[in-house]
Amino acid sequence: MNIRNFSIIAHIDHGKSTLSDRLMEITGTVAKDKMQPQLLDSLALERERGITIKLAPVRLAYTLNFELFTLNLIDTPGHVDFSYEVSRALAAVEGAILLVDATSGIQAQTLAHGLSAMEQNLILIPVINKIDLPNADVPGTKKQLSDTFGFSEEEILLVSGKTGEGVDKLLEAIVERIPAPKSAGVNIIPPQGWTGKFRALIFDSFYDPFKGVVAEVRIIEGQTSPINALIYFLQTQAEGHILETGFFAPQLTLNNCLTAGEIGYIATGIKESDLVRVGDTISSTQDAKPLPGYKEVKPMVFVGLFPIDADEYFELKEALSKFRLTDPAFSYIPEHSQALGAGFRCGFLGLLHAEVVQERLSGEFNVDLLATAPSVEYLLNEKPIISPSDLPQGDNIKGLKEPWISLRIFVPQTYIGPVMELVQDKRGKFLNMEHFGVAVELTYEMPLSEMVSNFYDRLKSVSSGFASLDWELIDFREVEAVRVDILVGGEKVDALSTIVYRPKAEGFGRRMVAKLKEVLPRQNFVIAIQAAIGGTIIARETISPFRKDVTAKLYGGDRTRKDKLLEKQKKGKKKMKMVGRVEIPQEAFLSILKS
């Protein structure tokens, strides 16, 4: 069968989308006058940031030795936050192009995705990209690939995604090296009188207001049933109908049916996105066996999202509901804060995912948001704690566990010292060090809570931008942590409550109250800003009041006249302090939460 299914996998910014452009251009999939840079990056935010956020499939037609081949390409994201999308893309193909930037060599996600592809027994084609750049180190990168993955030098292809150099040879290698798809127990060419039984793996989905959820699938066996036939989702037990099938060229292109080995889409007519999950199996019968590898996407980082204007709550709720249809990894539940009012506690795969979702909500749905500081999920006697306000106050909390991750950092040897110092400061436990030419891979175990507090920025800072990282969740471990509350004028501001590792709690409290002192406006009375653990105050700052000159109207006379007025003012201020309420402006919240 003349079908080849493959992905492009690489670290972020190694040129996956640019290489995809050249493959589409050379095979004539997209006319030259319609070509634009990073064509498969369809989101406005992807173009603005220059990164791939969503995987993108496309079908290419390629002729080799007068024989026509169908090449199904899946372009994947490179950032660690979207690793689950990459794993699903790899489950849908027989081979992968392992792309390495000639100027920066192997980095964390190169290794992570490469090993993941090898575990799934995929055929890897090693490719060195950006060979046209003056600072490209082709011999050094070749040696890295050989030492790390065991490739021979003859296997490694050299290309330039920008100029198109070497892409013809890459297309030949795809046809020659990547095997045709094998059907699981059923002939790829349907036998006579085929009844339409099939199984398909969902590797992505999106929402269409007319067709419902559209599942992007790889047909594993059989061929799709006729239009309007009933289909079953084996993990969620949902039912739908085939409204239409087709493939990506790269726009949706209608066809009659999809057969085993093909990659395309099935419009399901289902209006609830939760029922169509990435990694699930679609079948024409309920008693079919689900395909292996399915796991639910579990959020790692939680952020409270609140409307800046309380009247926009329902607009925000509607925006989140619509956005959830386009991003299955995003989750949200209602939450109420005394300081910020009604909002939502949202779950994300990582900090970049959280940042991207907030920007998309603001840009695509025109919603003004206020986001609380990111937190992670804790377990208190095996019960999930996703909001700091759910944790009891005070010290000596028994049975509290925090998530730990396995962390791999790729860094040039020059920066080993500063990077190790940073990770140790973040409670990291050193496991292993491996050398790859001039680069080193450091392996650590570290609490996830330490990673969501400016770890990535500091890692880039201490390594002059050269370090890259990959991480995955290991387990939950006992931790001595407390809830630090912030009190302004004696009232607790629940939106600023944070769960902190106990030895670091006092330092955290001091930084918070010092920052609040800078941003809170002065009042006509003294404002006490305090950080507390239970009933114990661990840090305090005081904002002095405005002083009105009540004696300005006096002219001459006895000193006692001034003293009487000052005493009266003092009593008034004391009373105002008792009944005065400090209003915290949104600007103050924004500056605190951004810091």
User: What strand line-up does the widest sheet have?
Assistant: 10-9-14-7-8-13-11-12
Rg, nearest Å: 29 Å
The figure for the number of domains is: 5
Quickly count the helices: 14
- CATH class of the largest domain equals Alpha Beta
Strand proportion: 25-35%
Within the CATH hierarchy, at the fold level, what is the topology of the largest domain? Rossmann fold
- First-to-last CA distance: 57 Å
Q: In CATH terms, what is the architecture of the largest domain?
A: 3-Layer(aba) Sandwich
| Assembly form of the protein | single chain
**The CATH superfamily title of the largest domain:** P-loop containing nucleotide triphosphate hydrolases
Q: How many strand segments? A: 30
The best one-word shape is: elongated
Low-confidence stretches: 184-194
Mean pLDDT across all amino acids: 82
Structural class by SSE content: alpha+beta
Biggest beta-sheet profile: 8 strands, antiparallel
Notes on the structure:
The strands form 5 sheets. An 8-stranded antiparallel sheet has the order 10-9-14-7-8-13-11-12, with helices on one face. It has a 6-stranded mixed sheet with strand order 2-3-1-4-5-6, with helices on both faces. The chain has 5 domains: 3-177, P-loop containing nucleotide triphosphate hydrolases (Rossmann fold, 3-Layer(aba) Sandwich), CATH 3.40.50; 198-283, Elongation Factor Tu (Ef-tu), domain 3, CATH 2.40.30; 301-372, Alpha-Beta Plaits (2-Layer Sandwich), CATH 3.30.70; 400-478, Alpha-Beta Plaits, CATH 3.30.70.240; 483-594, Elongation factor 4, C-terminal domain (Alpha-Beta Plaits), CATH 3.30.70. It is built from 14 helices and 30 strands. By secondary structure, it is α+β, with helices and mostly antiparallel strands. One of its GO terms (biological process) is positive regulation of translation.
